[in-house]
């Protein structure tokens, strides 16, 4: 394994841990930090006219994730 690969894996692991910590902090009683579900609900309700731009953006994000990480 090269050093670059180790750094990238460590970066993703750190981001995953940070995401988990934020989610735990968001679920405390009286927390002002929105949970991941709250953020997704807010983004998905965004529309321009009758076009569901938020839903299209979320679909595009998951397409990008699938394309870059799972298509090999």
Helix content: 55-70%
- Compressed to H and E, one letter per element, the order equals HHH
First and last CA, distance: 19 Å
How many helices? The count is 3
Radius of gyration over C-alpha positions, nearest whole angstrom: 16 Å
Q: Judging from the principal axes of the Cα atoms, what is the shape?
A: flat
Low-confidence segments, ≥5 residues, pLDDT <50? none
Whole-number average pLDDT? Answer: 91
Beta-strand share of residues? under 5%
Count of strand segments: 0
Largest sheet: none
- Output the structural class: mainly alpha
Short description:
The protein is mostly helical.
SSE blueprint:
Layout: H1 3-26, H2 36-44, H3 53-69
Helix pairs in contact: 2-3
Describe the structure.
By secondary structure, the protein is an all-alpha fold. The longest helix is centred in the N-terminal third of the chain and has 24 residues, at 3-26. It is built from 3 helices and no strands. Helix 2 (36-44) crosses helix 3 (53-69). Helix content is 69%, strand content 0%. The model has no long low-confidence stretch (mean pLDDT 91).
